[in-house]
Write a structure and sequence with these properties.
Diaminopimelate Epimerase, Chain A, domain 1; 269 residues
């Protein structure tokens, strides 16, 4: 069976997007991992599966390159919104994820704005393995934690280069029963942060949308920035605002790299 796909990216965070709205394709964790492999598959940071939704324009399932499912991905949400806009011409879209329904809007400059919802700041919401202050997680380096539909921990006084070696250790620290995405932040100016993220199940990526949201929330909670900042990632710039109603908005670019097809039946299930 030949399956069409889109290869897309948001600020360098890249995705393979397939469509199951007409019916299931027979994808499994093993097949997702094989297709996400950059050497023997198509290659991506996350594998995105679209499906029907009764209460939104589409359902979006997000899979990491290891085949495990993720709860939220802001960059992927923007890419899916761009696909829906080109299908139907509507600038406003609603996208259901396992973390809730996300509202997206196409802007006149070609960027996409996504309402990522409210950050979850309680230790049990992230979750942590035990009760702790999420503004000062009891780990070396004194990070802060927040959930944007998936768990994030943010370090402010570690070099950005630490992401590749410290990131995988923190991802699997026992204090995070569901593992964690690990962000490393430098304050460049009052409204500008530099960020690198080690993503659980994916490793280093050029951008992490939910990680940028968590970085802004945690930096604002620490008093390092206000509630609006540009987040400079390896692949570009994301604009993050923590609104007065407690919702976090992310605005950034989207691009389609190419389209193609793959033979699903040749990939072991």
């Amino acid at each position: 069976m030949r399956v069409p796909f889109h290869k897309m990216h948001g600020a360098g965070n890249d995705f393979v997007v397939v469509d199951e709205r007409a019916g299931p394709l027979g994808l499994t964790s093993a097949r997702v991992a094989a297709l996400a492999d950059r050497h023997t598959g198509i290659g991506c940071d996350q594998f995105i599966v679209l499906g029907p939704a009764e209460d939104a324009d589409v359902t979006m399932r997000i899979y990491n390159p290891d085949g495990g499912e993720a709860g939220a991905c802001g960059n992927a949400t923007r890419c899916v919104a761009d696909l829906l806009f080109r299908e139907a011409g509507h600038p406003r879209q609603s996208i259901r994820t396992i973390a809730g329904i996300l509202a997206a809007e196409m802007l006149p400059d070609g960027r996409v704005r996504v309402d990522m919802g409210k950050p979850r700041l309680g230790w049990q919401d992230i979750p942590l393995a035990h009760a702790a202050d999420t503004l000062h997680v009891p780990l070396d380096g004194d990070p802060a934690a927040a959930s944007m539909g998936n768990p994030h921990v943010t370090f402010f006084d570690q070099p950005l280069e630490s992401a590749s070696d410290l990131g995988p250790r923190i991802e699997h620290d026992p204090i995070f029963p569901d593992r964690a995405n690990v962000g490393f932040v430098q304050v460049l100016a009052p409204g500008r942060l530099r960020l690198r993220v080690w993503e659980r199940g994916a490793g280093l990526t050029l951008a992490c949308g939910s990680g940028a949201c968590a970085a802004l929330v945690n930096a604002s909670r620490r008093g390092l920035v206000g509630r609006h900042a540009e987040i400079v990632v390896d692949g570009g710039v994301l604009d993050i605002a923590w609104r007065d109603d407690d919702h976090v908005e992310m605005t950034g670019p989207v691009a389609t790299t190419f389209q193609g097809q793959f033979e699903l039946d040749t990939i072991p299930a």
